[in-house]
Design brief:
Layout: H1 3-17, H2 28-40, E1 41-45, E2 49-57, H3 69-88, E3 93-96, E4 100-108, H4 112-121, H5 141-155, E5 156-158, E6 171-177, H6 180-192, E7 199-201, H7 205-208, H8 213-216, E8 226-232, H9 233-236, H10 244-263, H11 268-272, H12 309-316
Antiparallel strand pairs: 1-2, 2-4, 3-4, 5-6, 6-8, 7-8
Helix pairs in contact: 1-3, 2-5, 5-6
Length: about 325
């Protein structure tokens, strides 16, 4: 019997006896599923049942080792279904297109698992307006890591093109469309498990069109892209991926990063394990951008000109 099946049995018994309370019972499989939903889920509530759909995007058709990404994702889906299906007690629908794979399932609103999912999700309808429930920060370390792994499997990318200044400084990108506060929530959860964020490329005009090139070309909304949370590959290894091609690439590029730093006589931990408040900022001034008052920007930071991504992070709630 799997741990997911045990979870359902124990939860059912405790619920019937009145010993279980909302938010009291959690396991790593449930945390993983919740992370996937927060990362790239869509929630369609009906009168009697709810449909959950989770998208796993794959931007490239080939892996870093020139293998077919869709084949790798299909192989990974078997592992993901083995985690989720015993937990939810039903089969998962699986559809695959050129650039995305979608997992979907329906459950009655009265079902314990669905009630718990909806309680954690709140009134959100998709990843674009969801927040990480405050109870997630009270999870065990293993549960937090599984939540982040589920989130990373549907939002994360690890590619050679993601490097920092030097080509061996490989990074994982977690891409979050539109949802400013979800970025902050995830960064704070990463901090909880000891994973520093190297950079956040905010979807803000001061950073996505800092020199006003696109604005001057008549494209005033060009900067409205996804937010990108960037983490050094070796620092991301405690989280990792369940999607096979991402996991293999993370291992490969993380090893390259560590080995190159060591060959250059650089202390790996001193180089990569730093939070932004531990690094001196250059405070480079940016041009005034006319779109800083756009409604797309949260009201708390709207109208402000920013020179550093760190200031937005701090103002929205990610800091020391």
């Amino acid at each position: 019997m799997t741990s997911s099946e045990n979870y359902l049995i124990v939860a059912s018994v405790l619920e019937k006896t009145g010993l279980i309370k909302d938010g009291w019972f959690m396991n790593t499989e449930m945390a993983y599923l919740l992370g996937m939903v927060c990362g790239n889920g869509e929630i369609r509530r009906g009168a009697t049942e709810t449909r959950i759909s989770i998208n796993i995007p794959h931007k490239k058709l080939k892996t870093e080792n020139n293998q077919d990404v869709q084949v790798y994702v299909r192989a990974s889906i078997a592992d993901i279904r083995a985690i989720i299906e015993p937990l939810i007690g039903t089969g998962i629908e699986f559809t695959q297109a050129k650039s995305t794979t979608t997992l979907s399932f329906n459950k009655a609103n009265t079902n314990y698992i669905m009630r718990e999912l909806l309680r954690f999700i709140g009134n959100a309808s998709s990843h674009e307006n969801i927040r990480v429930n405050h109870e997630v920060y009270e999870f065990t370390r293993d549960e937090k890591i599984q939540f982040l792994r589920g989130f990373a499997d549907v939002t994360g990318y690890i590619r050679r093109s993601n490097h920092y200044f030097n080509k061996y400084e490989h990074r994982v990108y977690l891409e979050v469309p539109h949802n400013w506060y979800l970025v902050v929530d995830i960064c704070n959860l990463l901090k909880d498990v000891g994973v520093p964020v190297q950079n956040i490329n905010w979807s803000h005009p001061n950073f996505r069109d800092g020199k006003l090139v696109k604005f001057d070309e008549g494209k005033p909304h060009y900067w409205k892209k996804e937010h990108q949370i960037k983490i050094y590959a070796n620092e991301f290894r405690p989280i990792g991926f369940a999607v096979v091609h991402k996991a293999e690439t993370l291992e490969q590029l993380s090893n390259e990063l560590v080995e190159t730093l060591e060959l250059n006589g650089v202390d790996v931990t001193a180089r990569t394990h730093k939070y932004y408040w531990e690094v001196r900022d250059s405070n480079k001034s940016r041009l005034h951008h006319p779109r800083v008052n756009d409604d797309f920007i949260p009201e708390t930071i709207r109208g402000r000109q920013y020179n550093s991504w760190k200031d937005i992070a701090r103002d929205l709630g990610y800091g020391e």
